[in-house]
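Lab notebook page, bench 4
Experiment: in silico fold of construct C2
Operator: M.H.
Input chain length: 720 residues
Purpose: comparison with the prior construct
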Amino acid sequence: MMLGIIVVSVVAALGFAAVNFYSVKRLDPGTPIMQEIALAIQEGADAFIRHEYRIIASIALVIAVILGILVSWYTGVAFLLGAVMSGSAGWIGMKIATIANVRVSNTARVTTSMGQTLKVAFQGGSVMGLSVGGFALLGLGIVYVVFGYLLGQLSSERLTVVTNWLGIQYIPFTMSVSGYALGCSIIAMFDRVGGGIYTKAADMGADLVGKTEAHIPEDDPRNPATIADNVGDNVGDVAGLGADLLESFVGALISSVVLSAYMFHTLSGSQTPISHTLVNKLMLYPILFASIGVISCVIGIASLLIKKVSDFPHRELNFSTWMSAGLTLLFNGVFTYLYFRGENFAGVGFALGALSPWLSAVLGIGSGILIGLLAEYYTSYDYRPTQTLAAASREGAALTITEGMALGMKSTFIPVLVIAVAIIGSHVIAGLYGVAMAAIGMLSFVVTTVSVDTYGPIADNAGGISEMSKLDPKVREITDHLDSVGNTTAAIGKGFAIGSAAFASLSLFASYLYTQASPEDVKGYTLILNMINTMTLAGAVVGASLPFLFSGILIEAVAKAARKMVQEVRRQFKENPKILSGEAKPNYRECIEISSAGAIGEMKGPAFISVLTPILTGFIFGADFVGGLLIGTTLSAIMLALYSANAGGAWDNGKKYIEHGHYGGKGSGAHSAAVIGDTVGDPLKDTVGPSLDILIKIMAVVSLIMVNIFSKYNLFALIR
């Protein structure tokens, strides 16, 4: 019965994704010139992601073998399964985005209807969202069935600590789900970093030379970087986004599963042990909760696609999102009561009985919505902060950048306060399990939020195609309006990802501490990390600096590739003046190759930092140092991610506010300054911000897997 819910959700999500994929594909792709441009974008995106996935596959195989040798064979297999699921979602999402973009443009051309165009863009985006939910649950379902039930890892005698050939102790099923989560995380990191470098290098190169030097419109076909820019939207903002949110979804789910297993183990010798029946329910509940959320999202997405859509995209997208969230809450409330009623919750910390985990999830959803609304307030040009930022552009680029930095810094305080209150509230309601459920609640309707997020890059690409195809300006007005709404919804989605990362990381950190309890210490074991301990404090200081090092490397990588792009665009304009007069075509392929080479060459360093830092510091300084490292990195990364997302989003929409006719409009001095501000914000909002929440979860999962190795074998313990 319970597994049936998972099967239904997976079939519904992936089946609906297939229907939407082929429904969009059957639409008219437009004029020959539109199809030619769309084909160039599609080929560029395909070439990049194939090259990227070949590199990722070779690295993933090495990591899987290492995990299989050092930990267990099933950890390595689960890791590969996670990588395949995450990679599949990203690939399918990228494919539909490159198919949908030209069809969105043509729908706007033929119908001149905002509502009809929105529906096509959203249907394309829904394929990514449905794939994220479907593939995430498909992989987790396989882990539960194969490792949990067929191999008996969920049986009462196997929910205890075992020792492998290296003397490393762990609970088998926690290693299976942790390996799966790590596989998803590795793909997400490479996709986000590689795609982010690609898209921002092309975007910055196109803007800095095209807009500010040559004074030609955005996506003008005379700009050699414009095809690379549109390719980047697909590999970074679609494939990268999908892998990122799938990783966040899985990370939240496994944090509660791992925590449940270690709570069961550590409380087994206490006066309030958890029954085997209850722990099995606790470990299955998150995936069932998420499955019901996916089914609710299928209904929410379908409701927008089958209804008559108005010309107010923000309202229509909110309708789908709120319906998905509302149904998720309603269905899961009834399910939770029926699932947990009659259980003895002594030792688990459920203060409000059977509905405690559901109420924690509700608190997570509420805090996620509030963080999203705050992100909208700080980044939308409908509100004062971004309007003030746009006004500062009249005094030049320096004040634009200064105002944006101030906005981003101020925007971190209230969201962090919301996260803090939600952590305390969810812990009061349902203990540490409640904190994990708050993360799951925040991402329980991730299918719809990803669908809404993905529609934005599709609309942006459609605008580029309409510009390059020289379609009626009305077409570009429609796609620009859809893109503007997409920028705001993307900022909201980033807020959800950051908030859920904070909750999930806290749960994983609790599990990290539980793993260090020796069998004789299990009875009455309490979670304590001594921050005054020299090693812990030193680790926290190093950890706090790590997101800045990580972010600096990413920004530098974008700058390197963008510099080459700028030089190439300038070279083409200089050597062939007929490009700017429209008499000759620019060399688009050269710019695509520059972005590809920059992304492929630079994506490995940041990914290895996230994986190797906890391992290397653990083998040198031990478990206490890594505990401090995780605390410092998490706290620092949350602030930096919020700053990056909100400052970058505000710079982008401040530019768009001016382009809509304020402060002189396009071509004015204020517009040139705003373009520079937007260029500064590009790597922050689309490369740094999204990568930081992956960083903290990868580090937490890697530390959880490796802690029992470096707690026994570390250099400091040998010389002390």
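Observations: The longest helix spans residues 473-514. The beta strands are 162-163, 169-170.
Next step: discuss at group meeting.
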